Structure to design on (346 residues):
C-alpha cells in the first residue's frame, strides 16, 4: 500500500512538472510571437544588404549594397542616396505608435491587402531578416499601417521626430531610385574631356592628359589652334566642374524624346576616365515657343541666354533626362576661354 502511494505521488509530480513545462513553453512561444509581430525595426542597419519591395500593381524594386558604400537598383543602376537614405532611416527607426482598436483592425487589414507594399529584408548571407507589409495612412496622415507577414495584428507606426506617412519612402518607382548625376569624376581620374558644338565648330575643343599635365586642342582639325598664353589655372578650373554635374530627372517615357533626338544637339560632352570608361551627354535646349534657336544665315545655335532654363539630355546613348541650365552651364566653355585675351596682350 505504501509503495503504491509513493508511485502515485511520483506520477502526479512528474505529470505536474510536464504540464507546467508544456504550458510555460507555450506561454513563452506566445510571448515571442507577440513581440515578433511588432518588431519592425532593424536597429543595426548595416545588417541589411538587400531590400525587395513589391507593389500591388506589379511594381518590383530590388536594392542591394554595392560594396563601395552605396546601393544598386535592380542590380545595375547606381542609386540616388537622397532617396535611399530616407528609406534606410525608416527601416532602422520605425516604431509602434499605437495598437489600433479591435473595430478598426478589419479595415486596416483590407487597406493593407489592397494598397500595401510587401517589404523583404535580407542580410549579407541572403537570410531573411524581416518581411512585412506597409499600407495606407491614418486620417491625420501622422501614422502608417504595417503588419508583419504571418501575423493577424496590424499596427500604426511612425518615425521618431518626423510626422507623416512613412509609406511614401517605400513608394518609389523605376528611375526614381536612380542617381541623376551626369558626371562625377575627380580631376586625378580624368583622361580627357571633349566639348563639341556641332554648329559652332570654332568653340569646340578637347582637353587631354599629357603626362602629369593637360593640354587643350581644337576638337575639329579645320579649327586653327590658338597660340596665345593660357589663362593661369583655366584648365583646372574647367575640369573641376566634372566632379559633380547633375540632372533634374529621368524622362525616358517623354513624348518628345524621339523628335528631340532627331535634332542636332547644341552641345555634346564626352569624358573618358583613366580606366577608359566613357560618359557622354548631349544637350538640347528647351526653348520657349517661337524662340529663334539658330542664326538664319549661318545655321549656328544662338548662345543660350536667360531665356533658356532647361535642357533635354541624352545620356550615355540610353537615358533621356532633364537638366537645369544654371546647373550644367559651368561645363559649356568655349575653346578661346582657356587663353588670355588678345587685346590685353597688345
Amino acid at each position: 500500500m505504501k509503495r503504491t502511494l509513493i508511485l502515485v505521488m511520483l506520477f502526479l509530480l512528474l505529470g505536474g512538472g510536464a504540464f507546467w513545462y508544456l504550458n510555460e513553453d507555450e506561454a513563452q512561444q506566445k510571448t515571442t510571437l507577440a513581440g515578433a509581430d511588432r518588431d519592425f525595426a532593424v536597429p543595426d542597419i548595416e545588417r541589411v544588404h538587400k531590400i525587395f519591395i513589391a507593389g500591388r500593381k506589379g511594381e518590383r524594386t530590388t536594392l542591394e549594397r554595392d560594396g563601395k558604400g552605396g546601393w544598386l537598383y535592380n542590380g545595375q543602376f547606381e542609386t540616388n542616396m537622397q532617396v535611399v537614405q530616407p528609406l534606410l532611416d525608416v527601416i532602422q527607426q520605425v516604431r509602434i505608435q499605437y495598437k489600433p482598436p479591435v473595430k478598426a483592425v478589419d479595415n486596416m487589414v483590407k487597406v493593407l491587402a489592397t494598397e500595401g507594399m510587401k517589404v523583404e529584408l535580407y542580410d549579407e548571407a541572403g537570410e531573411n531578416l524581416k518581411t512585412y507589409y506597409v499600407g495606407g495612412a491614418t486620417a491625420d496622415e501622422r501614422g502608417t499601417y504595417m503588419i508583419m507577414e504571418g501575423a493577424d495584428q496590424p499596427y500604426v507606426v511612425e518615425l521618431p521626430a518626423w510626422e507623416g506617412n512613412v509609406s511614401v519612402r517605400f513608394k518609389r518607382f523605376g528611375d526614381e531610385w536612380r542617381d541623376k548625376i551626369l558626371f562625377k569624376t575627380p580631376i586625378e581620374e580624368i583622361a580627357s574631356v571633349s566639348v563639341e558644338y556641332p554648329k559652332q565648330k570654332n568653340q569646340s575643343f578637347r582637353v587631354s592628359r599629357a603626362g602629369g599635365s593637360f593640354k587643350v586642342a581644337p576638337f575639329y582639325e579645320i579649327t586653327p589652334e590658338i597660340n596665345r598664353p593660357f589663362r593661369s589655372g583655366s584648365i583646372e578650373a574647367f575640369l573641376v566642374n566634372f566632379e559633380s554635374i547633375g540632372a533634374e530627372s529621368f524622362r525616358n517615357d517623354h513624348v518628345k524624346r524621339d523628335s528631340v533626338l532627331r535634332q542636332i544637339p547644341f552641345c555634346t560632352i564626352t569624358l573618358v576616365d583613366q580606366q577608359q570608361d566613357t560618359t557622354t551627354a548631349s544637350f538640347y535646349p528647351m526653348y520657349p515657343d517661337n524662340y529663334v534657336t539658330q542664326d538664319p544665315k549661318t545655321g549656328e545655335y544662338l548662345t543660350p541666354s536667360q531665356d533658356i532654363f532647361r535642357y533635354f539630355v541624352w545620356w550615355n546613348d540610353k537615358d533621356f533626362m532633364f537638366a537645369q541650365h544654371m546647373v550644367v552651364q559651368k561645363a559649356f566653355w568655349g575653346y578661346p576661354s582657356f587663353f588670355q585675351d588678345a587685346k590685353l596682350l597688345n
Remarks:
- DSSP finds seven helices and 19 strands in the chain.
- The two ends are 131 Å apart (CA to CA).
- Confidence is low (pLDDT under 50) at residues 10-34.
